[in-house]
Amino acid sequence: MNPTAQKLRGTRNWQGEGDDFEIEGGHKLSGQITTNASKNGATHLFAAALVNRGKTTFHNIPRIEEVSRFIEVFKSLGIKVVWIGKHTLTIEPPRTFSVLNINSRATGKIRSALMLIGPLSARMRSFRLPHIGGCKMGERTIAAHRYALEDLGLKIETKENYYQISHNKWIKKEVVMYEASDTGTTNAILRAAILPQRTVIDFAQQNYMVLEVCYFLEKLGIEIEGIGTKTLVIKGNPNINTEIAYANSEDPVETMLFITAAIMTHSKLLIRRVPIDFLKVELLKLEKMGLHYNMSRNYLSDNGRTKLVDITIKPSKLKALYDKIHAQPYPGINTDNLPFFVPIVTQAVGTTLIHDWMWEDRAIFFTELNRLGASVRLADPHRVFVDGPSKLKGAQIVCPPALRPAVMLMTTMLGAEGKSVLRNVYAINRGYEDIVGRLNRIGAKIKILK
Fold first, then answer.
1. Which one of 40, 177, 252, 419 is CB 3.0 to 4.6 Å from 209, fit for a cystine?
2. What is the mean pLDDT of residues 24-42?
3. Class assignment of domain 3-36+250-449?
4. How far apart are CA 185 and CA 200, in angstroms?
């Protein structure tokens, strides 16, 4: 490595920026692996913590880059965040908030910072929030956030480098979400939670991270009717000041990664602590394709609400479905899980149509599997045809700037003969804790190249 490159690597701040994974594929996995706590649940809970003026303790917070960015944003707002255990931290808001020193570099890496608008509106009459970042997969508007928050008494102006948020006197008591948006729903919930009124939110999303926020707010003392339905009724309280502890639940998207890894390596693998209510449709599709698996009885996550099971995936011969595979708002296939079906169907007999209608341009990333020997034909920016089964081989690929397509490539490389290199893996480290170490412990062969 030349001296300039060494200097640049020595000064980077964020894990995975410039790192590569070398993956030796074709190795069977075995034993068991446990699903970690949820990335999305953690970031939604971080925003929800600001409804509380007292100290909040969160358990089961994953040590991932997305959480690190959120902590950097919090600290720049004067919020005290302290790790008191491996996966436990405390959050204490200041008496007075200021956004003058907000970390715009960190907000530029995470879309979830948008959810701060709702709770911060209880502390400041007017403030700026830098433009947010996250996965780069075409245009992503904030319409669902804007329209809901405007109905709930806020004015949001989009400037060149920031959003200007201020208050209106007019506040509706019933809001209809403009589109199916998990983060938009949470933002509306958090705004309603700090309003001294009874607010109805219709067309609310019921995905796992939104439920996590509702469970936490209930424990905090906010009255919520209709949790798990499309219509929420929230009795807000802007003056909650209490000490509370809450445990984040498990990540269904991480479970889907392990299911995919087992399928791609033709392995028998026990996956523990699976949040089954958020994977039922995915498992049904896979079952109809020919996947064999066993499932334990239900038990509860540490939050006392989320149902978990243990699943054993078995080597299976797969066949393509006659109908297309596409994501839907919960309870359909999770949009974050859809990319995992692309490598899976490369191993199924027949042709599969995968329709990624929700994200502009994400389907283009699916064609990167062709570098590994797959047959993925792009029909348009939202649809691909995948022919299978394909014999996969190693290749070098630059990691897409999007979390789920990046992990899709990693799981495909596990099933490709020979060595592959996945370059610049920051996108993966955003959402998965110690993924290399955990996969290696069940038989994968992955090296981190610095």
1. 40
2. 97
3. alpha beta
4. 12
